[in-house]
Amino acid sequence: MNAERKIYSVAEVNRKARRALESSLGELWVEGELSRVVIHSSGHWYFTLKDESAAVSCAMFLQDNVRVVFKPKDGMKVQMLVRPSLYEANGRYQLIASEMEEDGKGNLQEQFEKLKAKLAAEGLFDEARKKPLPLLPRKIGVVTSPTGAAIRDIINVLTRRFPNIEILLAPAKVQGAGAEQSLAKAINFLNTRGGIDLMIVGRGGGSIEDLWAFNEEVVARAISESKIPVISAVGHEIDFTISDFVADVRAPTPSAAAELAVREKSMFEDELALYDRRLRQSLKTRAQDGRLRLNRAAHSYVFREPATLVRQYRLNIQTLETRMGNLLKMDAQGSLQKLESFNARMTHLLQSAVQQAHQHVDEIGMVMQHRMESKLERDRQKLRRLESQLRMLNPLAVLGRGYSLTRKADGSVVRSMKSVEVGDTIITQLADGKVVSNITGKE
């Protein structure tokens, strides 16, 4: 009996169990919550996937997890494509994952990519349309939840950097049903208010579902149509939304947006102090230069011998008067000669133009006379042709060839014996007259 018994080692049993498990179930999608996540130094991931009533050990090796766009962490809900297997070394049942997505992110990611491609094709992401941020905004509008951490962070940073800054909050829902309409309405509202130099639109971090309102088309178009420069500050540094691409500037966090919005007041004060020192030094230098020039002028020849200088200027003026008089005479003579020369040229040109005009009129008259004679000759030929045709159509010409035309007393033409009766009077038209007859019989 012992000779017939087949003895397996533990390793063989585990191997058979693994093969049977893998071949019977194959690949399948499973969802659950991650816990006890371990990222090994080799790059492999080990974790537990659980739901309300069960848990299972899982592994995702480096060659597969490099394609995952996020880092797994405890409490994250995921969907995974897995292959059930068994770890032969200890006989532990486990799932080997080849793909992993955040729960619900697959469909959302597809929507995100489609809208991103659509708006990019329309040019909403182009750098050329992005507006520069003002150097020192006096009033900043903020679109976010009035109760979230984002507005507190923004206010703290802005007031710390520039205590005089004015902040206007346009409260809006930042997640859940209707959040996208609330955000768009708040953005449009700030654009109707006057005096707002800059706008911050955003919220704190969260899951892709929490941030999804900032991926809606209505919010993207409200930002793109804003006349006020917009800083998008949604989530954390690793989070990207459609609003980030459409906005004029993207900030990784709400606090970073506040830092981008305004420089520290002390920096402006330092720069103003520097400009003040430069201006004072420049004015001091110019004043010293003016004093030196004044001293040099006071000791110059002009102030020491003013009468001599005046006499010299008078001589210069007399010389200039003489030269001007001579130049005026020469200019007048030259102008007179130019006028006479111009008058002679104009007279010659007018005579030439008149002669050419006479010649042109004669040529036109000859052409018109030739055309009139040609037309008269054509009209005569046409008249002769019509006269010949008329003669051929004249019924009297037919009568001249021996034919006659017979009519009844009422003028109707006799075309048949049936149209006359015995006793009727008929009139026969001949070439040289008419014959009146009475019908006495018909044959």
Query: Could you name the CATH class of the largest domain?
Result: Alpha Beta
The gross shape turns out to be: flat
- The helix/strand class is alpha/beta
How far apart lie the N and C ends? 152 Å
User: What pattern of helices and strands is seen along the backbone?
Assistant: HEEEHEEHEHEHEHEHEHHHHHEEE
| Largest sheet properties | 5 strands, mixed, barrel
Strand order, biggest sheet? 1-2-3-5-4
Low-confidence stretches: none
Brief account:
By secondary structure, the chain is of the alpha/beta class.
Description:
This protein is of the alpha/beta class. The protein has helices at residues 10-25, 62-65, 105-121, 149-161, 179-192, 217-224, 242-246, 254-261, 265-298, 301-304, 306-393, 395-399; strands at residues 28-39, 45-50, 55-60, 77-87, 92-102, 139-144, 166-171, 198-203, 230-234, 249-251, 405-408, 425-430, 433-438. It has five domains: 10-103, OB fold (Dihydrolipoamide Acetyltransferase, E2P) (Beta Barrel), CATH 2.40.50.140; 108-263, 3-Layer(aba) Sandwich (Rossmann fold); 270-298; 300-393; 395-443, no CATH class. Helices cover 49% and strands 20% of the residues. A five-stranded mixed β-barrel has the order 1-2-3-5-4. Strands 7-6-8-9-10 form a five-stranded parallel sheet. A hairpin with a 4-residue loop joins strand 4 (77-87) and strand 5 (92-102). The longest helix is centred in the last third of the chain and has 88 residues, at 306-393. The radius of gyration is 56 Å and the shape is flat. The model has no long low-confidence stretch (mean pLDDT 85).
